Amino acid sequence: MLNLHNLIDHIRHEERMPEVIAERCVHSNVEIASCLSCADICPTNAWSLDDHALLIDTSVCDGCGLCASTCPEGAIQSRQEILIGEWNSTPIALCACEKNNLPRHQGIISCIHIITIQDILSLYHKGIRTWKVATADCDNCQRGCAEHLSKKLASINRSLNNVNRIGVTHHRLNIIEWQRIREGLIEKNAGPTLSRRGFLRGVVNAGLQCSTSTIKLFHQSQETFSPPGKLLPNRGASSLWPFQPVIDPSKCNGCDACTRLCPHQAIRLQVIKENTSYKLIPESCSGCGICTDVCEQEAIRVTGWEKQKQLEVRLRRNICSSCGNPFHLPIESAAGTDIQCRICEQTNHHKNLYQVLS
After folding, report:
1. Which residue range is the domain that position 61 belongs to?
2. How confident is the model at residue 338 (pLDDT cuts 50, 70, 90)?
3. CB 61 within 8 A of CB 110
4. I need a labelling partner for 271 at 20 to 30 A (CA). Which of 103, 153, 293, 329 fits?
């Protein structure tokens, strides 16, 4: 029988196990999907992918949450919470890495680097633009393989600054200073004094009830998932996007597979009167890679943190010289005018006819 301490440890371990929203995983939607973000980032090799399923070995999983932070479709949930509050009249987000050997309490998370772009931008829209964190020795930690929080913030700030928006401030604190701020936030929350009116209004609008509260990370996973670009201001040609698809029109055969399978319609087939095109929507791209996986011509690539490279790929309408059915190709396609549709190109009609006559 488990003693009390072992029982508590077991419950805590179970609570930290990641949960999967199966219908969101790219492997549930596209059989040939190549995404291995969860398996590649896992420091304990708990995740594996075979021909039948994506599997997790809970006996070796340490609940670090890195898999949740790297899943492009928000298909993995991990129970992690940070603190938000007001410090020196400034709304802040506060969190520390558990590798600092701190007791498990509010604001302590498994790894600072599990914080996602969506987490940062969601709080940014609620007026929280200052982060105070305490990390451990990331360079010598097996969880340090993840993209560091500082790099995510730098990318976000480049995008915000490019459209003349205030960026996000990041302060790395020693553990003593971090604990002092945390205790101050908790004490303030326990007292009768409310926070500054402006911040309180923002907190109430966010659905919170007090000046110091916990916020769940990966909270989008519980509702409809939105790509990170949806949370950035759209200023057209000036905007830098976390992800965007780019099509090489000289290779594209107009099969429309990318438009049919993109989970967020980052590539759309647009028909306006006589004009047909593939319209590219960078803010809708999650970087899942489905478009590159299904493109037989290897005509698509996904770039990151760049200005929009393409607005659209214009298409011309053709009639197949073999079957007579209509199809379309990029105007810049290397193919000529007397051509077959992609189905007839793969079919030897003369061979089939010979087989019938013989």
Report:
1. 4-73
2. low
3. no
4. 293
| Distant-in-sequence, close-in-space partners of 199: CB < 8 Å, separation ≥ 6 | 86, 91, 127, 211
* Among 84, 72, 80, 82, residue whose Cα is nearest residue 33: 72
Q: Cα–Cα distance between 130 and 132 in angstroms, integer?
A: 7
Does residue 176 contact residue 132 with C-beta atoms inside 8 Å? no
Please tell me the distance from the alpha carbon of residue 90 to that of residue 188, in angstroms, as a whole number. 14
Q: Are 235 and 110 in contact (CB under 8 A)?
A: no
Does 358 reside within a domain? no
Distance CA 14, CA 12 (A): 5
pLDDT band at 78 (very low <50, low <70, confident <90, very high): confident
Please report, for the domain that includes residue 52, its CATH number: 3.30.70.20
Domain contains 229: no
Residue 167 pLDDT = 97
Tens digits of per-residue pLDDT, 86-120? 999 999 999 999 999 877 778 999 999 999 999 99
The domain total for the chain is: 3
> What does pTM read for this prediction?
0.85
Q: How far apart are CA 128 and CA 57, in angstroms?
A: 37
